[in-house]
Each structure stands twice: as structure tokens, then as C-alpha cells.
Amino acid sequence: MNLDLLVFISIAFLSSFGHCYSMCGGFVLLFLNLNKEAKNLFILQIIFHFFRILTYIFLGVLFSLIGNFFLIDTTIQNLFFFIIGLLMIFLGFALIFRGKILFLIENHIFYEKFIIKIFQKAKTYKGVKSAIFLGFFNGFIPCGLVYFFIASAMSRQNILESALIMFIFGLSTLPALFLFSLMAKFLSDLFRNIFNYIAYFAIIFYGLYLSFIGFKNF
């Protein structure tokens, strides 16, 4: 699990300076604009990210319970690992070769039908309400990176480990998203792309590793 944790932290931290800006940036920016005059903005940011991470943990526990359904039999467990690994490889390539595949897995129709409504509703809130509301729904954004961590959580038999994986994801993305306005200006597109590609290739290699574990134990 120690090596896994290092991989998860690296992927989440590196991709947070690129991919997370594009996916979660709208939520963070709206939240900051709604509360730009708040004297307790720092506290509000902590609340926002607390509920964002809490949503990830909830998703980790939920999909871990679903995954455990497939891990009862050893043969099924190995097949499940193999399939999850292939899914990770697919996600990694989809993130690298951004196009129709990524369009499908990140579901832009969802943005049009659901996210816009959330944004419209959020504009009626300020302070703690906006932090809780936007932070909570931020965690449900359809995102290839989140899918990778959910798939990782599903591959764990221990629910606490699944929750820990999603907690690590949320915590590792915290520095970049917490300093969104500052880091967005500081980092060039080149550096963001470099961070992204390192993270995406790590996803592919981790998927290969998980598929190999499942395949060799058939």
C-alpha cells in the first residue's frame, strides 16, 4: 500500500496543476467571486475544500461496497483487477489524447443540464452556504481523473483503504486549488501540460500493473 500511496499522491498532486484547473476551476472561481469581499475568506475556503474532499470519501466508500460484491470469489477478484486495470489504461490514454473519448467519459451534456443549474442556484448563496453547496457538488464533477481514483477505490477490499485513497486524492489537489488564482497566473501552459502528462502516464503504468496482477493469478 505504501507504493500505491506514493503513486496516488504523485498523480493527484501533479494533475491538480493542470487537469483540475480546467475541471474544477469553474467551481473554485465562482466560489471566490461570490465571497471576494468576505473577511473570513480563508475559513470559507477550508469549508469549501472540506466538503469537496468529503464528497470524494463518500464516493470511495460507495464504490468500494460495489467493488466488494465482485471480490467474493478469487477468480472473479482477479478478473475484476484485470478489468479495472484495463479501465485505468483506457482513462490514461483518453486523458492524453483528449478528444471524443474524453468527451464521452467527462460527459459535457452533464455540464449543460446539471452544472449550469448548480451555478445558477449557487449565485443565491454567499458565505458558509456557498462554501458547503459548491464544495459538495464540486466532488460530483464527471472527470477522468476522479474515475481513476474511484476505480482504485473499487479494487480495495478494505473500505477504509478506499476512503483513504479518495481522501489522498482530495488532499493532494488541495494546494493547487486552494491557491487557484495565484497558481493559475504563475504556471505556464507548458508546465501544466508537463505535470498532466507525467500524471497520465503514471495512470497507464498503474493500470498495467493492476491488470498484470489480475492476469497472472487467473
TrEMBL record:
InterPro entries attached to this UniProt entry: UreH-like_TM_dom
Ranges of residues in domain Urease accessory protein UreH-like transmembrane: 8-209
Domain of life: Bacteria
Transmembrane portions of the chain: 6-32, 53-72, 78-97, 131-150, 162-182, 194-215
Alphabetically ordered keywords of this record: Membrane, Transmembrane, Transmembrane helix
The protein, known as: Sulfite exporter TauE/SafE family protein
Lineage of producing organism: Bacteria, Pseudomonadati, Campylobacterota, Epsilonproteobacteria, Campylobacterales
